[in-house]
Amino acid sequence: MTSTLTKPKRRPKxxxxxxxxxxxxxxxxxxxxxxxxxxxxxxxxxxxxxxxxSRLFELVDGVLxxxxxxxxxxxxxxxxxxxxxxxxxxxxxxxxxxLGADGFxxxxxxxxxxxxxxxxxxxxxxxxxxxxxxxxxxxxxxxVEVLSATNTxxxxxxxxxxxxxxxxxxxxxxxPETRTADVYTAPGQCTHLRASQSLDGGDVLPGxxxxxKELFASTRRR
Length: 222
Fold this sequence. Notes:
Elements: H1 17-23, E1 32-33, H2 43-53, E2 57-60, E3 63-66, H3 71-89, E4 96-99, E5 105-108, E6 111-113, E7 117-121, E8 142-146, H4 153-166, E9 170-175, E10 180-186, E11 189-193, E12 198-200, E13 209-211, H5 212-217
Parallel strand pairs: 8-9
Antiparallel strand pairs: 1-3, 2-3, 2-6, 4-7, 5-6, 7-8, 9-10, 10-11, 12-13
């Protein structure tokens, strides 16, 4: 489902590998899958690779881009998912569902992203049923990205543009190295949170709070 409020940004078609890497945010060439050739990959390819190789690739304008995620990032994403799920289960109104770091989302044709955590409101699903297709045509009302070593600032900036173009209302970019987070309500509207502050659900998850100190403490034994 694509938002009617924001038109997708039109990007020139890359003519060289250097232009392709630049358009994807200056990512490492090792993250680009060459078979099928860039520009010709489809959703069937990302599903086949996941099934056969247990590797996750996003589809960006027909290009397969491997999704990096180390063990610590996976732990933090799991903890964030748990906090959100616990909050949702305690509410009297069922607001939506949570997907983890293998939840494929079709933001538009030829663009499939996999946020580390996605909260998707039931407002996107008037039937009250989550889609059964392996790649859902839904967007994250709340998108969470936990930074990995191979992520680049320009890659994250492009993802943010795509999330908000699709209809996203809130995004959290969590940095394990600095133990901080950036909160976005639009691609250019960011609030930086220090380690002593808390993630806030805003209008998406009213009343939700997650102290960064508690989140990062989960990487140590109690």
